[in-house]
Design goal:
Blueprint: E1 4-5, E2 21-27, E3 47-49, E4 52-58, E5 62-70, E6 75-80, E7 88-91, H1 92-97, E8 99-100, E9 103-104, E10 108-109, E11 118-120, E12 124-126, E13 130-134, E14 143-151, H2 157-163, E15 166-167, E16 178-186, E17 191-197, E18 201-209, H3 215-221, E19 222-228, E20 236-239, H4 240-243, H5 251-256, E21 259-262, E22 269-272, E23 274-275, E24 283-285, E25 291-293, E26 297-299, E27 302-308, E28 314-324, E29 338-347, E30 355-361, E31 363-375, E32 394-398, E33 405-406, H6 411-414, E34 429-430, E35 434-441, E36 445-452, E37 458-460, E38 463-468, E39 478-489, E40 494-501, E41 510-511, E42 514-522, H7 527-534, H8 538-542, E43 544-551, E44 554-560, E45 568-575, E46 584-585, E47 591-593, E48 596-602, E49 605-612, E50 615-616, E51 621-628, E52 638-645, E53 651-653, E54 655-661
Parallel strand pairs: 1-15, 20-29
Antiparallel strand pairs: 2-14, 3-4, 4-13, 5-11, 5-12, 5-14, 6-7, 6-13, 8-9, 10-11, 16-28, 17-27, 18-25, 18-26, 18-28, 19-20, 19-27, 21-22, 23-35, 24-25, 29-39, 30-38, 31-36, 31-37, 31-39, 32-33, 32-38, 34-35, 35-36, 40-54, 41-44, 42-43, 43-53, 44-52, 45-51, 45-54, 46-47, 47-50, 48-49, 48-52
Length: 663
């Protein structure tokens, strides 16, 4: 086990803007846009080998931050580089039980006792590539997610070290700080300033004590707002109930309806309602119901206030804000992001249009969210599931990529549980990184959940968008509201230099060993993919036409770059179904296409291997990326990029985009 950081210290690194770390997620989502997300094992692996199902495969160095599975019964095998024997081989039951000394509680949870989902947050570092394999044989339900931070040679050592330290639930010794405290009632549409300071500092905690009378209304109607560094608009503006992860539970309503029936006859079950206090590392509720936020909040100047958005006065609210005189971030103050809590709400989600949790432009990291989802009415016959909207997948779009990172194979699975409407797995719970804190029922069915990315944050350098599908293929109308937590800078650290269509004479494009060249009209995986499959004529509206070239030899082109660049990122658009006609046919009707790889040189110098592992064919456009180190590009005004195909199948591309880092 690597060294531990106390609860508060474990959050300090989140405020530091990421540097050359990327998140890669592999998962079992249905790549056709449907809802067969692991139910039949059709998509429960990247590809299969004689040694087992491969769940993750990457070159280079990184840290596996989360392994999450449902239905896997064999063992987790972790291979380093080209090794024939695994460095780690542990039965899944032992991995998640909490009894193994390297994988103890509270960093692991077991499927049956952890509400339908097994998970492991113990970091697994690697230096020369990593493959995660499960020697499964049974074709039954298997769901998985692997979240991994990938590094480049320009990733600083402090960032790798922060990734590989395990958090603790124990409180550490706090640095000397000042406390700003008080108590006051809050008038209808009133405002109360909790803390204000015009010199630099770091808010280390906020504590609130709410009145017991009409508490759920206070949680819903009173917003916490924070203004940093003289900005006119608040960077934090959220209802207390969502900001602190408790929802808006009505204790009396829960007592009146502790459960409700679902189904009939032998299939009738009782679905429990209830509430539980969050015990997350960033936010929690104490036994005396004091609300605590431990997110570090650095500032040059600050104002924190409570605002009553309702026409009813709130009772007396007590507060305590702890502030350090200057940020304690190991000399990295200049790299800090602003703490943001972004509130959104949709009263009735739109069919086939994902709910957007966050959409920002700049540089930072996404570190979690709290969501409350409510059914749009109820089936009073109680014969069907009430929360089918929970079948929606979580989708992250990073740095303007049109291909998403899939954060889950269902909404409840993004929050690290599973099998809603199936007691006893469907009952409220709270863990340090995730929880399901409220399930209440009135004229609608309400669920509040939280998920915090303490070690598995989502770095972004140009933009970030988190969209959430609602129901199978986004078809279920429901009421959603959410608070997304980020550390953010408005200044982008990645700038687009050029776009290169294959064959572009303006970029002196040339290729050798052409296998095929064709013009295709496709959509990207996601909303439009579903509609293109279902609705006549949608492809003509949303489809993108591009010419795809496949080469068995070399492809090369030249681009202009800013001399002040500190490295490049190259993105390509490719045909996700390339060579499907010769792909390996898999059970369940899926097809696995072979690995693509290219040796990359920049002005003739070796930059590494761009590799796309074997994976399920997708009838849509896809994108992937390659990172070029600063030593090959810094100070240059133009570079020539060459790609030599060395994969199982020829290299396939329609277009390249070249971005320059500026940090």
């Amino acid at each position: 086990m690597v060294s531990l950081q106390s609860r508060s210290d474990a959050l300090r690194h989140l405020a530091i803007l990421p540097c050359r770390t990327k998140l890669v997620i592999t998962d079992s989502h249905d790549v056709t846009g449907g809802n067969n997300d692991g139910f039949t094992s059709a998509y429960s692996y990247l590809y299969r080998t004689p040694e087992g199902w491969v769940l993750f495969d990457a070159n280079g160095s990184g840290t596996v931050q989360l392994v999450r599975t449902i239905g896997f019964r064999t063992e987790l095998q972790v291979f380093s580089g080209d090794a024939k024997e695994p460095e780690i081989a542990i039965p899944f039951a032992g991995l998640y039980s909490g009894t193994h000394p390297d994988f103890p509680h509270p960093y692991v949870g077991e499927e049956e006792s952890a509400h339908g989902s097994s998970w492991c947050f113990v970091p697994i570092p690697f230096e020369n590539g990593c493959r995660i394999v499960a020697p499964e044989k049974e074709e039954s339900y298997h769901f998985f997610n692997v979240w991994t931070h990938i590094y480049t040679e320009d990733t600083p050592e402090w960032e790798k070290a922060a990734d590989r330290v395990v958090w603790s639930t124990e409180e550490g010794k706090s640095a000397p700080c000042s406390l700003c405290s008080g108590a006051a009632p809050l008038d209808a549409h009133g405002k109360q300033v909790l803390f204000e300071q015009s010199t630099p500092g770091l808010v280390t905690s906020i504590r609130l004590r709410l009145p017991t009378e009409r508490r759920n209304e206070t949680l819903r109607d009173v917003h916490l707002r924070a203004f940093w560094d003289g900005r006119e608009a608040p960077d934090v503006d959220a209802p207390l109930g969502l900001f602190f992860g408790v929802g808006y539970p009505d204790d009396e309503a829960i007592r009146r309806m502790p459960s409700y029936p679902l189904g009939e006859g032998e299939k009738r079950v009782e679905i429990p309602t209830g509430r539980v206090s969050p015990c997350a590392l960033p936010v929690s509720e104490e036994p005396d119901r004091t609300l605590i936020c431990r997110f570090p909040m650095p500032f040059d100047s600050a104002r924190i206030e409570l605002v009553n958005t309702s026409a009813h006065a709130a009772g007396e609210i007590g507060w305590e804000v702890a502030v350090e005189p200057s940020p304690a971030t190991a000399g990295l103050d200049q790299r800090q992001g602003r703490f943001c809590a972004l509130y959104r709400r949709e009263q009735g989600t739109l069919p086939h249009r994902d709910y957007t949790v966050a959409d920002v432009r700049g540089h930072g990291r996404y570190v979690g969210c709290v969501m409350r989802m409510s059914s749009r009415g109820l089936d009073h016959g109680l014969r069907t599931v009430q929360r089918l909207f929970l079948e929606g997948n979580a989708r992250f779009y990073v740095d303007d990529s049109k291909s998403f990172l899939c954060g889950s194979t269902g909404t409840e699975e993004y929050f690290n549980w599973g099998w809603y409407d199936m007691p006893p797995k469907d009952q409220v719970f709270a863990y340090p990184t995730h929880g399901y804190t409220e399930h209440t029922r009135d004229s609608e069915d309400h669920s509040t959940m939280y998920r915090f990315h303490v070690t598995d944050s989502v770095p972004y350098y140009r933009s970030f968008r988190f969209d959430l599908e609602h129901g199978p293929e986004g078809e279920i109308v429901a009421d959603y509201e959410s608070v997304a937590f980020l550390y953010h800078s408005d200044q982008c650290a990645l700038a687009l230099c050029d776009a290169v269509p294959v064959g572009s004479t303006a970029h002196h494009y040339r290729s050798e060993g052409m296998v095929a060249r064709q013009t295709l009209t496709r959509v990207y995986e996601g909303n439009d993919q579903v509609l293109a499959r279902k609705v006549d004529g949608w492809l003509g509206v949303a489809g993108i036409s591009d010419t795809v070239e496949t080469v068995s030899g070399r492809a090369e082109f030249a681009v202009s770059v800013p001399p002040e660049n500190t490295g490049l990122r190259i993105r390509r658009r490719y045909d996700g179904a390339w060579q499907k006609e010769s792909a390996t046919e898999e059970p369940g009707g899926s097809s696995v296409v072979g690995a693509q790889a290219a040796l990359v040189t920049i002005d003739g110098e070796d930059a590494g291997t761009w590799r796309l592992p074997p994976r399920h064919a997708r009838e849509c456009w896809m994108e992937d990326e390659f990172e070029v180190p600063a030593r090959l590009t810094k100070g240059k005004t133009s570079v020539r990029v060459a790609l030599k195909s060395v994969g199982e199948v020829p290299w396939n591309a329609a277009r390249y985009w070249v971005y320059a880092y500026s940090e």
